[in-house]
């Protein structure tokens, strides 16, 4: 139990709400687990196909029910800097498995797209749905029924949530997530943002911009700002799906390799053939999900997880809501200042004490459930450590220090940067939305201004370049929801809105689309539901209407007389331009099936 009564109450209400779906889920997990080693149900022909390329010793081992077989699901490709290090992981994992008398096979690969490449491009309209495609692709890999446990190799934005959904769907299998780590620090993120703004204002050219970007994104590993990818890694550790200390160790280092080998061996140790059977569907429960939300707030994590955590929880029969997330944000203090919430990057965060210090502080202050199951086999207190490389090449875990290595980057829970996590739900006559205010200055938490309506982000960009936006306004960028065009991140809005705000204007954004986990200083009501294509209230807003965005009281309203607003006809723009090109036609069925943003914007649940 946590020491904080408020968190206990929120956890209990999630448990009660989830009971009708969680209990049948657990029954399915236990029914699958009780069947024992699943290869035993395969025919000789099935099994022969499954181990055809294995060595004679491995074939002999897999022909029985005693030696565990580890399935590897990999999101490797060498275009994504974060995923390129995974190229060498399968052989490393196979060798580690052999050392403990097990076998490991790559069960399947899943697609992995880089939102950094597709930002502002047609391909971004596939991004959110790639999460559910990844879950299905991983499911295909595991459907061969050859495996006693699984490890998942993934890092970035939709990839880890998709892999988690797959893992929980195969909840009878023990599961460990293995990260690749962040790239080393390059050009500081605030300097990169400064050059972007100069480019948007026409003060530097493309050559200077590309040089800046290349110095920031410069090598293998995750981008170093605290966006969705690094929020994923934090979540996997604080939810007990990583080995302790694994999240933020740089690629291609001895400690990174030691953690990878250790994870493979541990995955084989927690199969049904051993004494520590840890099926992931039972391991991850309501307390684990709450711990993940607490970590998100304490670190100022990505708004994308208001979608992903809801969808991930639903895969385990757990009904998490935006209200739960918002209420937890009111309780949990912000303890990290990592760009865009500060100047530091994730390497600075790790050097200041990282996940170990964060978890220790949150546990001491009663914000986390310690009595959870983890892949490490102990409660969450075992994660309050500082990972190092031992002399024999294995992982050494020292207790996390009592003091932060840099209080400007990572604070104690009792001395936070702000009293709440800064992620709130907004409600009102426009529906429901979320807003992240951890990087928004307090004087901008309330914006009341005329609306200017756009139907895509390019329209706003063009208006900015024409000099039409030098005033106070709230940009309404609609028809950007899951059903309209796949809910792309509207990352290109960050720079022009930031420029206008820096010029002294009161500006904000209201959208049924998404914003990047790397955005922050402009108040943005995002993920608005009902979305415009469903004739939500946002479809009736007209340019000139006064909107009020109040992040203090959690209100989002159009200040138009109720009868007049109700009588308006919803806008119905031509969306055919979103239906073809860059594979968008393949995703038409997913757009039709997509759920609402507050339910995770999924086609699966």
Automatic annotation (TrEMBL):
**Listed pathway(s):** Carbohydrate metabolism; Entner-Doudoroff pathway
Name the cofactor(s). [4Fe-4S] cluster
List, for all copies, the residue spans of the domain called Dihydroxy-acid/6-phosphogluconate dehydratase C-terminal.
Answer: 408-601
Gene3D superfamilies linked: IlvD/EDD C-terminal domain-like (3.50.30.80)
So what does this thing catalyse? 6-phospho-D-gluconate = 2-dehydro-3-deoxy-6-phospho-D-gluconate + H2O
**Dihydroxy-acid/6-phosphogluconate dehydratase N-terminal domain mapped to chain residues:** 68-381
| Coiled-coil intervals | none
Q: Which residues bind [4Fe-4S] cluster?
A: 156, 223
What one GO molecular function would you report for this record? phosphogluconate dehydratase activity
This entry's comment on the bound cofactor is: Binds 1 [4Fe-4S] cluster.
Give the superkingdom in one word: Bacteria
Classification via SUPFAM superfamilies = IlvD/EDD N-terminal domain-like, LeuD/IlvD-like
**Annotated keywords:** 4Fe-4S, Carbohydrate metabolism, Gluconate utilization, Iron, Iron-sulfur, Lyase, Metal-binding
InterPro entries under this entry? 6-phosphgluc_deHydtase, Dihydro-acid_dehy_C, DiOHA_6PGluconate_deHydtase_CS, ILV_EDD_C, ILV_EDD_N, IlvD/EDD_N
Q: What is its EC number?
A: 4.2.1.12
The task this protein performs is described as: Catalyzes the dehydration of 6-phospho-D-gluconate to 2-dehydro-3-deoxy-6-phospho-D-gluconate.
* Family affiliation: Belongs to the IlvD/Edd family.
Q: What is this protein called?
A: Phosphogluconate dehydratase
